[in-house]
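Pilot study result, target chain (431 residues):
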Amino acid sequence: MDKKEMIKLLFETAHEDDPSSTLAFLTETGILDEGSMSKIIDMKIKKAVDAVHNHRISCAGEGKRWFTRVNDPLTGKSKTFAGSSETNIYERLYDFYYGAEQQNRKKTLLDYYPDWLKYKMSTDIKSNSAKRYDQDFRRYYKEEPLSQEILKTPVCELKTSTLKTWAYQMIKKYDMDRKQYGNCVLILNQMLEYLVENEILKTNVFSAVKIKKNVFRRTTKEPAETQVFQKRERAAIIDLAIQRALQKKDESFLAIPLMFMTGLRIDECLALSFADFDLEKHAVFVHASLSAVEAINQDGTWETRRYVYNDYLKGNAEPSYIDVPDICFEYVDMIKGILKSKGIKRSLLFDVKTPNNIEMKLYRICDSLNITRRSPHKTRKTYISTLINEGMDMDYVRTQARHKDLNTTLRSYVYSTATNEEKIAALNQVL
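Predicted structure:
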């Protein structure tokens, strides 16, 4: 803390708008010279420190350094303070008790949240993650009565026991499964890690919180009819999408059969270029995505979401080739033909402003066919389930899905695509 800041704190009652104005007036009019003013400041600093400091201040000898100890609120232990002179060590102590360090010790999670969110927006590849964090913060923290205690407690005073009690209360109130709990505490955990990295905290006290497995709500796998399209449904949707693409000269309809035949996520499919398809390899190079960009206003509200093409994938996955069936190259030729008929030349297969464009096309096709609406991501689940149900090697399916772990493939992406009649027929044949 510099002298000017000290003056403002020491003489804060002197003048409401500018605490240092009284001293400035006295020095400017000659009532006090600089030496006298400095002595007054040093005297007030010494008096303020002596009122709160409970350790001896001593000098190692004439012309030597001055020493004392302070209690570190982050560790609960004492640490040594040293100064080149008595005045210098009193200034350091004053800063410790009344200055920036003291202000930091009073700050709460609520105070640090804006800085942490800016940090996340600058370090996360996908900016839409920050908006999800902000929505979760509002729901689970800012607007949640159970969270008010931990939000208002200075971060250096947060205790593992308090956070553990809070965690159990939140799990019970929201009947959380493991995933929901993970989303809830992610903000708290990462904020504390951020404060440790910035040397505001010594340790992340939440890292010691352990939750018993039996308190989480047990989850059951969603029924297949809500997660994948049956074989006949898939075939009907693909046929109608092709028909509408040719009739309307709207190549974006062909994103639907391409997703069914490649298992690509919608943001990956919409970022495909003609150069990504390699007929000789019977493969497509997956390396880009149409990603959401979120920006926050100064008042804390979010700007309207927009989409841009980025040369990265979900989870910062490595670009890779995946094998594709011959029909995909026929779809690419159809797209070229439609674009040529409209006099359009471009490198990308599709030109849509948002993935919602394709999502709504899929929904309208489902409505026309009297098929229950399912999201575009269900085309990916249908692709993976179809490959495994048709007996393809599971590790090959994993690589096609670009999953690092086979458990991810089997746990979340494998469902029966057969109708009930087909299942009964198969049972009769097998048994």
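One observation from the pilot: The chain is about 50% helix and 10% strand. A full batch analysis is planned for the follow-on phase.
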